[in-house]
Write a structure and sequence with these properties.
alpha/beta; eight-stranded mixed sheet; two-stranded parallel ribbon; 45% helix; DNA-binding
Length: 584
DNA sequence: CGAATTTGACCAGCGC
DNA sequence: GCGCTGGTCAAATTCG
């Protein structure tokens, strides 16, 4: 888990701060033992590999210098005893016996250090338990919502009487919750429905009929759980394609118009990530193959076209380009949803892109009436051309419990968002390049991104543990609940299917990667389709940020401790990009 | 030698 | 219809 990683980092940091030298140890002894080459002299016989089995510290081989501290810990903290701990214990004692220093001093020093570690451990445990509790609560609420939706679907209504098979309807209601990233509005034809229903029935045949289990899917359009994949290995490819119909498969089922609409919608949904990065590409965990390069108009820097190669049939693509006005900014635009399990480090972008797709589709599928009701400032632009409808959240702030942990930079969303319901390229832009303005973080941070845009009440998202929970009381109309209860307010049924993207997944990797923002809970202040998907994007970004420990994924500014993140919902990536760092 | 990248050609969409 | 542009293909080239 992330916390384990944090703790590992903390341990390492603690050790590094102590210069890896236990108090009272002579330099000579320390150096000789730390090098690990003086086995004869000190009787040290432990290899770093022996220690690396430890669950907390398994991510990296411990350098010999870290072993000293570790050995001290072994005697006092059984929980840290690795496989082969007995030999370590022996080693520890051997090491001590060969030393000339007072054993009491050593023990005292070690105990002091262990006390710190234990204290941190307890704190983390309490946080974790709280998170788990919150998560279970959210899950419970979500299932309640699903049940309610089910009842609503089953309730007789004029519209539903027109439908021939109410049973099928009900079944579809469940299916909707499974079709991650697909809005119900997109499943228009009987062919599509049957396609999905076939998936459901086949899934049931494969012993995965439990709806709840089906709900716990990953973001990679995760309709196939790891369990499913196992069972599906024996099935024909055609059957798999039924379950996971890529656009090519759908061609055989749908009419041309629907096909075009489907492809156009899915193609248009994008997530654009701006990162300060010196590397030619942003390391996002996926494997990409470059298939083209082009000099785009208005930017002398070539734009690279990449395809995800984790799975041969994966439709996800990305474009990588340097910002023309700031060459240090790397612009990565993701498109599509992965149809395969993802590496942990790659799940973040998968969530973001999936959320972007969902949001764009929801915004395009929901009627303008709905938008007017829910977000008066979201003017439908069907008749006014692209990008005419915008909304600007004055602020979206997120606090992590990492506030208390100096290693975790405070995460703060300075969100200027705009959304266009009728545009050629609806794009969510995650701007990880701008610096935060903490001095004005109470909801009135002036947005340099869209200074002329009308502002909506600020949306403050708090990812804080209860131990130091703080919600922004300046936000408007904070809902009573978190998570699904929030999501359910005024959210059309189709939007609820987005939630599983953040929900529990059977894929342990995805679960690990997404768990934090999910379990921490999302306190949303506006329950709109926009915000729902927005949360997904936020969570994805959060996951990425925290999961990477504010390194790699983020640029230099992120590493330096503070960063701002702008989420924008607009039509033209280029336009969005220019808005952020270089307002026109 | 296979995989990955490069790069020019080609295609489709869009505006005029 | 034409030209521009973005996006993709695929042969050539490079790399490990």
């Amino acid at each position: 888990m992330l916390r384990a990683f944090e703790m590992s980092s903390l341990l390492n940091t603690t050790m590094e701060e102590k210069k890896m030298k236990p108090t009272g140890v002579k330099d000579d002894d320390f150096e000789s033992s730390s090098t690990g080459t003086d086995e004869e002299e000190h009787g040290v016989c432990v290899e770093p590999d022996q220690i690396s089995h430890n669950s907390l510290l398994s991510s990296e081989k411990l350098p010999a210098t870290k072993m000293v501290f570790y050995e001290q810990c072994v005697d006092q903290k059984p929980s840290l005893t690795p496989v082969g701990g007995s030999s370590l214990e022996k080693t520890s004692k051997t090491c001590y016996s060969s030393d000339h220093m007072s054993e009491d001093d050593r023990l005292e020093s070690a105990r002091a250090q262990m006390g710190l570690v234990r204290e941190e451990n307890q704190r983390l445990k309490s946080i974790l338990s709280k998170i788990v509790k919150d998560y279970q609560s959210l899950q419970h609420q979500f299932f309640e919502v699903v049940q309610e939706e089910k009842k609503v679907e089953m309730a007789p209504s004029p519209n539903k009487l027109l439908l021939p098979h109410s049973q099928e309807n009900n079944e579809e209601a469940e299916l909707l919750s499974l079709t991650l990233g697909l809005s119900s509005s997109r499943l228009k034809t009987d062919g599509e429905r049957k396609n999905i229903l076939t998936t459901q029935s086949e899934s049931a045949k494969n012993g995965n009929s439990d709806l709840k289990q089906e709900l716990s899917l990953g973001s990679y359009n995760g309709k196939i759980t790891s369990c499913d994949r196992e069972s599906l290995k024996d099935t024909k490819e055609g059957e798999i394609l039924k379950i996971w119909p890529p656009s090519k498969v759908l061609k055989t089922v749908r009419s041309d118009d629907e096909q075009v609409m489907e492809q156009t919608q899915s193609k248009r949904a994008r997530v654009c990530v701006r990162v300060r990065c010196d590397a030619p590409t942003m390391e996002d965990g996926c494997h990409w193959r470059k298939y083209g390069q082009k000099i785009a108009k208005g930017n002398p820097c070539p734009r690279g076209y990449y395809r995800c190669t984790v799975s041969p049939s994966c439709p996800v693509k990305k474009q990588v380009q340097r910002c023309a006005e700031d060459m240090s900014v790397l612009i990565t635009t993701y498109e599509g949803n992965h149809n395969h399990p993802l590496p942990i480090s790659a799940t973040a972008m998968a969530f973001a892109t999936s959320a972007a797709t969902s949001m764009v589709q929801s915004c395009s599928s929901t009627s303008s009436q709905q938008q007017q009701q829910q977000q008066p400032d979201l003017r439908p632009s069907a008749s006014s051309g692209p990008a005419s409808a915008t909304s600007t959240g004055g602020l979206n702030g997120i606090d992590f419990p990492g506030d208390r942990n100096p290693k975790l930079p405070r995460l703060y969303f300075s969100n200027s968002s705009s959304i266009s319901t009728c545009n050629s390229r609806p794009t969510i832009t995650l701007d990880l390049t701008s610096s935060p303005d903490f001095s004005n973080r109470d909801g009135h941070r002036s947005s340099s991104c869209f200074p002329s845009l009308p502002k909506l009440p600020s949306t403050f998202l708090s990812f804080s543990s209860s131990s130091s929970s703080h919600l922004d009381t300046t936000t408007h109309k904070s809902s009573s609940g978190i998570g699904p209860s929030v999501l359910n307010h005024g959210v059309p049924p189709q939007h609820q299917l987005y939630q599983p993207q953040l929900g529990p997944v059977t894929n342990s990797q995805a679960s690990r990667a997404q768990s934090l923002p999910d379990k921490l809970g999302i306190e949303a202040t506006k329950a709109t389709p926009l915000n729902l998907s927005f949360q997904s994007a936020l969570a994805a970004a959060m996951t990425s940020f925290v999961g990477d420990g504010a390194t790699g994924f983020l640029g230099d500014k992120g590493k330096e401790g503070g960063f701002g993140l702008n989420l924008k919902f607009g039509d033209d990536p280029a336009t969005q990009l220019n808005h952020s760092d270089h307002p026109r």
